[in-house]
Amino acid sequence: MKDLRDILKIRTNDIQPEKGKILISEPFLMDYFFKRAVVLLAEHNEDGTFGVIINKLVKSRFNEVVKDFPDFQGQIYLGGPVQNDSLFFIHTMGELIPESVEIIEGIYWGGDIETVREMIELKALNPDDIRFFAGYSGWAPEQLDEELKRNSWVVANINAEQLLNTKPGSLWTRSLHRLGGNYKSWTNFPDDPSHN
């Protein structure tokens, strides 16, 4: 009988990793952080790759995790295993937050945190405008390329509407359905392969 991992050895699509693309983990990746994860790439170059996991909500509210900020009703996401005691963010505010960088049309990475703090205090920023992440996901030069060759990830496109309007808990499944083909079948594999 064919091993389930053999079924996953499909030819990868031709989308290359770059800023603004997403990585979708294969269904048997059992790593605590990356199990059924969707990672938004903020940078990919010869120095390495980094981004944030965009579909793993932390159960605690924002101010329970981030103590030195004004009261904010937003949530916080688990961004990845690197520097998970640090805060990272994406937003839709563009140039209103200085030093931010557009990574997808309408979605910006980072910027001046003091401006963010002030906007929250003035109630000029609401939870739909910004997402905060504890930690980030990073790969050394060529490390991600090796993981892609092993089919640990598939690279896909995403737009602002898909990112902002898809519930985090269904983002992995919905992203694979958008890819279609054999990737759609990944969603049929059990969450825990030992229960198959």
Kindly describe this structure.
By secondary structure, the protein is an alpha+beta fold. The protein has a single domain (4-166), classed as VC0467-like (3-Layer(aba) Sandwich). Helices cover 23% and strands 30% of the residues. It contains seven helices and ten strands. Strands 1, 2, 3, 4, 5, 6, 7, 8, 9 and 10 form a ten-stranded mixed β-sheet that branches.
Number of domains: 1
SSE ordering: HEEEEHEEEEHEHEHHH
Q: Biggest sheet: strands, sense, closure?
A: 10 strands, mixed
The assembly state of the depicted protein chains is: single chain
Q: Residue share in helices? A: 10-25%
The unreliable regions are 1-5
| Overall body shape | globular
Q: From the helix content, strand content and strand pairing, which structural class follows? A: alpha+beta
Per DSSP, what share of the residues sits in E-state strands of 2 or more residues? 25-35%
Helical segment count: 7
List the helices and strands and how they pair.
Elements: H1 4-8, E1 22-25, E2 38-45, E3 48-53, E4 57-61, H2 62-65, E5 75-78, E6 82-91, E7 101-104, E8 107-109, H3 113-121, E9 130-139, H4 143-149, E10 153-156, H5 160-165, H6 171-179, H7 181-185
Parallel strand pairs: 5-9
Antiparallel strand pairs: 1-2, 1-10, 2-3, 3-9, 4-5, 6-8, 6-9, 7-8
